[in-house]
Specification:
The chain has 16 helices and 14 strands. It has a four-stranded mixed beta sheet. Strand 4 and strand 5 form a beta hairpin. Helix 9 crosses helix 15. The longest helix has 16 residues. It is globular and about 65 Å long.
Length: 430
């Protein structure tokens, strides 16, 4: 049984551990790559925590570790996958049991990065695209493992069999496609409601790009009542609720069928996903032929053009509590620059790189307006923590999608948000 912690519990743990940490900035920045003189001398065993359970189970991560061992014969890398990474990693950090190399929590304020992570050298981040992320006070604590966008991943063969000749370019067309797929005996869109975390696509993610304003979420700190039926929150969640009401998603909503759903899309038992481009690689690994899988921007309204996000994926860094930081630094550099890890379904992390993914080429052919993400501000993260809202996990999105009365649920969230803001005067609001 998985224990789900409230944000207040996680915050208490963070406060307790932070009180005993060193003053930020005291530690010396380690070299990005060991020099030739000490390559053979690097030894020991390090542990990497990751959300990529699929890469552990299919042997990909072990393959990377084996390549690393050819370069550093006395070094070993082990892996541990966390199925609910956003929540689990906060608990692991609070107990200093976070391995040596790990993905940075997205809900950790930048000002607290130095409590838990080792600063990286400028050389390591020279090609970083998202320069405002994973940084504080002139120091960088993480490197992006890839770049993602979100859209509809679909099975072209299933579309053809259902008589669908072109991808939908408006929301009404999208609903019409869902209706055709349902009549053909296919699950139109696998929402992965039971897995919870994929539901972020219907909340935070869509809300932050459908307006074309990457700071939409950050700007919520200026508003006592950001959840409204008529604004992006109401529109995005309204689409998800409509899909469920019309029976366009899976029947077993409360079952966590994430792994199974990829196979269903690959086999043509489901027609579409709303997810990041990184999912494409996993659907192909589940048995789909590359020519059968396509990708198009999500038409969230009936306008002629649509925005799509351009986001960094998880950032990777070194635990401050690691006993072998030099080896950990060498592993991070090796993983990101000398293996195919960042190409496992991601777009290149470096801003100058282009993707060879055919599905992404199709995606761009529909001419979406790409909105490059900005970092979540500490003000927003602090506000979310005070309101006890975990934007990283998707739990509350699941509750909103299932709510009998969405307005009533929004009113409850607005009350919590207003209280967290301390009911600031209107002059300080947008």
């Amino acid at each position: 049984m998985r224990v789900r912690l409230t944000f207040s519990t996680v915050l208490l743990l963070l406060v307790l551990i932070s009180a005993g940490c060193d003053v930020p900035g005291r530690q010396q920045v380690l070299p990005a790559v060991p020099s030739a003189d000490n390559e053979a001398g690097l030894s020991g065993t390090i542990l990497m925590l990751t959300n990529r359970i699929d890469l552990i189970e299919n042997g990909t991560m072990k393959g990377y570790a084996d390549q690393f061992k050819l370069k550093y014969p006395e070094a070993n890398v082990e892996f541990e996958g966390l199925s609910n990474y956003a929540t689990d990693i906060m608990v692991r950090l609070s107990t200093k049991d976070a391995g040596d190399v790990l993905l940075l929590p997205v809900n950790l304020p930048a000002k607290e990065l130095s409590y838990f992570f080792e600063p990286l050298s400028a050389e390591m981040s020279a090609a970083e695209r998202f320069t405002t992320f994973a940084s504080f006070d002139g120091k960088r604590y993480g490197l992006s493992t890839g770049t993602t966008t979100s859209g509809i991943i679909y099975n072209k063969r299933v579309f053809e069999q259902a008589g669908i000749t072109e991808v939908p370019r408006t929301l009404e067309d999208f609903y019409a496609v869902c209706a055709k797929l349902k009549r053909a005996g296919v699950i139109p869109l696998y929402m992965n409601y039971g897995a919870v975390w994929p539901l972020r696509e219907w909340g935070n993610n869509m809300v932050n790009y459908m307006t074309g304003n990457p700071d939409y979420m950050n700007d919520m700190v200026h508003d006592n009542a950001p959840w409204q039926l008529e604004n992006p929150w109401g529109r995005s969640l309204g689409i998800a609720r409509t899909l469920i009401t019309r029976g366009y998603v899976e029947d077993e909503l409360f079952s966590n069928n994430w792994e199974i759903s990829k196979t269903m899309l690959a086999r043509g038992e489901a027609g579409m996903y709303l997810s990041g481009n990184w999912t494409i690689r996993q659907v192909l690994d589940a048995g789909a032929a590359p020519e059968d899988i396509g990708f198009f921007p999500f038409p969230y309204d009936n306008g002629e053009a649509h925005y799509a996000p351009l986001n960094p994926d998880w950032f990777i860094g070194i635990s401050k509590f690691s006993k072998n930081k030099e080896l950990s630094m060498a592993w991070v550099s090796f993983l990101l620059s000398e293996t195919s890890y960042t190409a496992e379904g991601f777009l290149p992390a470096a801003g100058t790189s282009e993707s060879a993914m055919e599905q992404y080429t199709e995606f761009l052919s529909y001419q979406p307006k790409l909105v490059e993400a900005t970092v979540q501000t500490d003000a927003f993260i602090d506000m979310a923590n005070r309101a006890k809202l975990s934007f990283a996990t998707g739990d509350y999105i699941q509750e909103l999608i299932a709510a009998p009365d969405l307005k009533q649920s929004f009113d409850g969230l607005n009350e919590r948000w207003k209280e967290a803001r301390g009911d600031k005067p209107a002059s300080q609001q947008h």
